[in-house]
């Protein structure tokens, strides 16, 4: 028997009892809650603001190809790219911020001469990795584009002369990349002819601070041209393999053509546009359809311009649609045929994964 067992035991002070209750029923549960996943500061969870949807990770192979072996882009440059997704998957690659392009085209000081072939060829040999024979062919095609009035805006001509079309053609067709014709790029798609690309680009009247959306990335060539005119280019392709191929081309040449890092791209159905980045100052559709998708009209800014080929599979009219908002808030759309009724073109059909946007046809049209 212990020495104090017979003494009356004193009750502990009340403040000690209260403190034990607080520790047991308040502090311990809070500590457990803190340790649970998703409840720490900066991590998305109940009662905590979710983190941004763009994450600094490389694209998943299911969506975007990794850089090719021998790519000109460095790890530091690739770090400037971000992955954006509407479904949690790595569906698109884009600059870190829309307001801060990865490369500001307005800061370029060296400009290719556009008034003399010899000077232009010499400039390209000093400022680009392009082969001389393609540079010469590009110059000659530019002269034809001007002579036919497909494009006369000096900014558009310079954009054409800066863009290596041969990089976006199939290797077997590269020798004919500056011919006046559309060429197949696989999966039932084609790369549009230089004259049509130039004419549609001029009709857009695109400027560096304007945001442009392309529906139908295809080979990636049209967006490459647009990136010479705008710091904010967005493009959507429904054919996964083409989206991956275009991405790999942009990545491969992003050191020599840093403006390609301003091209935000993803694999998706372009019929619904890209609401996460809307509104757009300019929208260009490179597939034929028999109506104008309502979502694209909604995503156009007041005063914005959309180009879209509308009509049956046998041939479409390339419409220039300008969105006008009146003082009373009512919206109207001005429509204009960029060829003024003198020409119709035949594009590949506007398709979807379900087929509901596809034009019915007894022929397979080519994209000019």
The CATH homologous superfamily of the domain at 181-337 is called Vaccinia Virus protein VP39
What's the average pLDDT? 79
Q: Please mark out the parts with pLDDT under 50 across 5 or more consecutive residues, or reply none.
A: 1-11, 20-24, 26-97, 360-368
**Rg (C-alpha, Å):** 28 Å
Query: Which word captures the global form?
Result: globular
CATH domain class of the domain at 181-337? Alpha Beta
- Largest sheet entry: 9 strands, mixed
User: How many strand units?
Assistant: 11
Which strands sit side by side, in order, in the main sheet? 1-2-7-6-5-8-9-10-11
The number of helical elements comes to 9
Tell me the series of helices and strands, N- to C-terminal.
HHEEHHHEEHEHEHEEHEEE
Structural class: alpha/beta
